[in-house]
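Milestone 3.1: sequence recovery, worked example.
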């Protein structure tokens, strides 16, 4: 594809290679390594002057390392006289700190946006932001994709009957409603109270779930504490099988063990926006579906200056 170049760091190599395969192009040769003291070293080994460059680098754990790799790669591409630099962030880290919800705390999602723009990015391509308003933190165009089509296709093939989509909190109602409409399912909400940034307490289930098959939908699962607690309450309400559809499976800390030990959870299905840890890959109930074709199609359309709205499910607009 003339004038298009794909670069990637160490954050998610399999996904980047999958995108290149769908686009039928070879990734630009480059080195992303470390100096002896740990500083990041980047060297682009091909001419990219005048090219439309896309850098695939989710800022997933280790978040700080991957973010610095992204910033340095963007700077290197800008200084190599690329025509345009687009940061492709399937997962946008630090998104949970998107507002001042307590005294003397930062708005880190805005800080990271400023850093990406300052480094030289002219466009951002991302998916399922933790908060939609983060798009407004950037002073450059942001193309926001959704994983709903990919995840719904997976569950549609299962042909589940008597289905209810459950939002894990009030803030996720819009996403859950979109899944429910796409899957022609009912809708319920978990009413919970947040005790700390990593701990919540489930209070009630709003909606009819008794005797139903349930899909819990959320954008992020980190330690899986809230997820397991919600599943426990749902089981007490008499649901049948419980599934989870998650856009970004961070699965940090005790998450893999919690999911493995949660016998009530039939499957946790997540995208490959974040690579699974070795521990998570061993958990049979954790399934991963790829978004490589979605990102490849978006990249091709952006490169050709075409609309990407056709990639959105109509229920998510």
């Amino acid at each position: 594809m003339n004038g298009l170049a794909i670069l990637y760091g160490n954050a998610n190599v399999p996904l980047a290679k999958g995108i290149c395969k769908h686009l039928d192009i070879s990734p630009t040769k480059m080195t992303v390594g470390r100096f002896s003291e740990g500083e990041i070293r980047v060297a682009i080994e091909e001419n990219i002057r005048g090219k439309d460059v896309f850098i695939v680098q989710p800022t997933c754990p280790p978040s700080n390392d991957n973010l610095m790799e992204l910033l340095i790669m963007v700077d290197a591409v800008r200084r190599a006289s690329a025509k345009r630099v687009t940061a492709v962030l399937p997962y946008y880290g630090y998104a949970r700190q998107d507002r001042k919800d307590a005294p003397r705390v930062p708005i880190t999602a805005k800080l990271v946006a400023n850093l990406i723009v300052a480094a030289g990015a002219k466009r951002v391509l991302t998916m399922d932001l933790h908060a939609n308003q983060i798009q407004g933190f950037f002073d450059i165009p942001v193309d926001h994709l959704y994983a709903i089509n990919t995840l719904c296709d997976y569950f549609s093939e299962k042909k589940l009957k008597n289905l209810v989509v459950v939002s894990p909190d009030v803030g996720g109602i819009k996403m859950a409603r979109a899944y429910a409409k796409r899957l022609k399912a009912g809708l319920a909400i978990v009413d919970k109270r947040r005790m700390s940034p990593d701990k919540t307490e489930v209070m009630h289930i709003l909606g009819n779930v008794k005797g139903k098959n349930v899909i819990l939908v959320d954008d992020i699962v980190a330690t899986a504490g809230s997820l397991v607690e919600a599943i426990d309450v749902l089981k007490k309400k008499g649901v049948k099988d419980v599934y989870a559809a998650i856009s970004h499976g961070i699965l940090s800390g005790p998450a893999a063990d919690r999911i493995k030990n949660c016998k009530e959870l039939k499957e946790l299905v997540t995208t490959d926006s974040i690579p699974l840890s070795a521990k998570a890959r061993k958990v049979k109930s954790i399934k991963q579906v790829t978004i490589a074709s979605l990102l490849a199609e978006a990249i091709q359309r952006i490169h050709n200056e075409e609309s990407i709205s056709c990639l959105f499910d109509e229920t998510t607009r």
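The radius of gyration is 20 Å. The first helix runs from residue 13 to 23.
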